[in-house]
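re: that chain from earlier
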Amino acid sequence: MEVEFTKHAAEKFLEEVYVKDVKITKKKIFSVIEKPAFKKRQGEKIFAVGDLAQRHVLVVIYKKVGKRAKVITFFPARKGRYES
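^ sequence. v structure.
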């Protein structure tokens, strides 16, 4: 699946987000979208959650636009917070 980023999501890469020395990369975001540990839909938005570090997950919020996934935002969170 093709992935594109909103301006907001793309600008987050300039901040170089780390959690416990694990850098959030585009490759990790692609992985969470393709094979999420947990996925939930709220209207048009899809919340995909995947492992990031021992006690953290990566939450990717995106919407489907045709055959593409348009990433709205992403952020680290403590395990258990978004998986239910």
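The mean pLDDT is 89.
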